[in-house]
Amino acid sequence: xxxxxxxxxxxxxxxxxxxxxxxxxxxxxxxxxxxxxxxxxxxxxxxxxxxxxxxxxxxxxxxxxxxxxxxxxxxxxxxxxxxxxxxxxxxxxxxxxxxxxxxxxxxxxxxxxxxxxxxxxxxxxxxxxxxxxxxxxxxxxxxxxxxxxxxxxxxxxxxxxxxxxxxxxxxxxxxxxxxxxxxxxxxxxxxxxxxxxxxxxxxxxxxxxxxxxxxxxxxxxxxx
Length: 224
Ligand SMILES: Cc1cc2nc3c(=O)[nH]c(=O)nc-3n(C[C@H](O)[C@H](O)[C@H](O)COP(=O)(O)O)c2cc1C
Fold this sequence. Notes:
binds flavin mononucleotide
């Protein structure tokens, strides 16, 4: 047992769930921005997302070496260039996707909420139907039942009716559905800008401050 001593601030992390949709650079951008904002993170990487990470970056994600693998991943730019970012991962705690006894599988474990980025359609279905097939889905279900903030950055195209219905169910349950679809009005010139736009909108939905993209200020409007 590790009770909080009087005067001590309890660690209250954001859970970040990375599922097996394409878009691991979105997850990296969200993780970097949360850490830069001084937030702590509980990280859950699904089994399938290890394949997308390997495919998209060449980096494995191994439970036994998660710190080294995470450092390598977060240092990469969206163009794959190593050493683009310097990141201190001291605020990250990692839970294995199969660990259903982990902290985030209980509503009494203190967290601010959960961001699923990217969210696969399988993950969307699992959370909408309450399947809890792994820790990521269980933590998302717990987040909803505790009425905490859940942001779901779904990535698939096209979307079939079944997924659209699951997304409506998530919205009805109080989640924010944030499609991983970048806008082009913020002056993007590099892939990283487009990635950061999506990551920034995920953080907007969570209410976390960041400077990831240039906000629209009404330039073409006629405000006086
Ligand atoms: C390289 C690769 C890319 C994939 N991209 C997507 C995607 O963009 N969206 C999606 O819904 N599923 C995608 N999948 C399929 C999911 O990984 C698969 O449905 C998996 O069961 C998701 O499991 P999870 O939600 O537990 O991570 C992709 C799979 C691979 C191997």
